[in-house]
Amino acid sequence: MRILILGGTTEASALAARLAGRSDISPLLSMAGRTSDPRPMPIPTRIGGFGGVTGLADFLRQERIEAVIDATHPFAAVMSRNAAEACAQARVPLLALRRPAWMPQAGDHWIDVPSMEAAVQALGEAARRVFLTVGRLELAPFTAAPQHTYLVRTIESIGDALPVPDVIAIQDRAPFHEDSERMLMERERVDVVVTKNSGGAATYPKIAAARSLGLPVVVVARPEKPPGIEEVASADAALDWLQRRHGRSP
Ligand SMILES: NC(=O)c1ccc[n+]([C@@H]2O[C@H](COP(=O)([O-])OP(=O)(O)OC[C@H]3O[C@@H](n4cnc5c(N)ncnc54)[C@H](OP(=O)(O)O)[C@@H]3O)[C@@H](O)[C@H]2O)c1
Questions:
Q1: How do the pLDDT tens digits run along the chain, 250 residues long?
Q2: What is the position in ligand 1's atom list of the atom closest to the CA of 51?
Q3: How many structural domains is the chain composed of?
Q4: 230 shares a domain with 157
Q5: Which residues line ligand 1 (CB under 6 A)?
Q6: C-alpha closest to that of 107 among 217, 218, 221, 222
Q7: What is the Rg, in whole angstroms, of the alpha carbon atoms belonging to the chain?
Q8: Which one of 139, 167, 176, 210 is at 20 to 30 Å from 156 when CA atoms are compared?
């Protein structure tokens, strides 16, 4: 069974690890190519866009893909929409592997906002020390609030993506740990954290650390994903779905 995994997430990598070496399923992992030094994957991988809905539908037909798993990040809205349309066109079954959103717990001080622009507004006028964990490609709106000091953590170097006077840039990639997150926030005297509601365990420790320090967290809500797509929350559940489609018992 030839399957395409739309990846770039921990969940996609976990599914790839489970499929590696199987003779009954022939997986292909697709990455957008945003990270210059991606972690090596144990299954065949392709990198780069498909060329919109038409490009993806053509790819599915040419490669004789029999099922697609959309395991992209909850904020990768365009890819998920394209996958839904292309799979419908090419009549290929589609499953979404989507980690559940984080939910606030007792002791959390969340400020829920609908967009990155609203996150900038939520920081207010007074200068604050902001821990920005939103990703390199989403820094631009924060140039509208140059009064803050930004501690920015990204996988790739931010280059000139945030041209404001006070930026402390660190490069690191998940998984993170609550103790080290707390130490970082204390050392840099962080007043407020900004995050997308990405979900998942790998980047959750910043939320737990902020809670323990009593810090507010500006949480950007997820974009809409296409409706009507069957969805699971774990790589194991995606594997079950594949095995059911393949007509084999787990
Ligand atoms: N957005 C985030 O916060 C975030 C965080 C962590 C990881 N990621 C990962 O980074 C990638 C890009 O995210 P994004 O938010 O820029 O996506 P996006 O806005 O939804 O997608 C923009 C375009 O990038 C290409 N693309 C996206 N994911 C792809 C994939 N897995 N394989 C091949 N092409 C892909 C597609 O190009 P074509 O139209 O040419 O096909 C798509 O139209 C995704 O794979 C996502 O899983 C995103």
A1: 999 999 999 999 999 999 999 999 999 999 999 888 888 899 999 999 999 999 999 999 999 999 999 999 999 999 999 999 999 999 999 999 999 999 999 999 999 999 999 999 999 999 999 999 999 999 999 999 999 999 999 999 999 999 999 999 999 999 999 999 999 999 999 999 999 999 999 999 999 999 999 999 999 999 999 999 999 999 999 999 999 987 754 4
A2: 40
A3: 2
A4: no
A5: 6-9, 30-32, 34, 49-52, 55-56, 72-73, 75-79, 82, 135, 196
A6: 217
A7: 20
A8: 210
- Same domain (yes/no): 216, 114: yes
Cα of 172 to ligand 1 centre, how many Å? 20
* 250 lies in some domain: no
Residue 192 lies in domain: 109-220
Is there a domain that residue 216 lies in?
Answer: yes
Same domain, 135 and 183: yes
CA of 212 to the centre of ligand 1 (A): 33
CATH number at residue 153: 3.40.50.720
Name the one residue in this structure whose structure tokens are 């969805």. 231
216 shares its domain with 118? yes
Q: 């050392």: which residue's tokens?
A: 187
Sheet holding 149-154, edge to edge: 109-113, 216-220, 192-196, 129-132, 149-154, 167-171
What's this model's pTM, rounded to 2 decimal places? Answer: 0.92
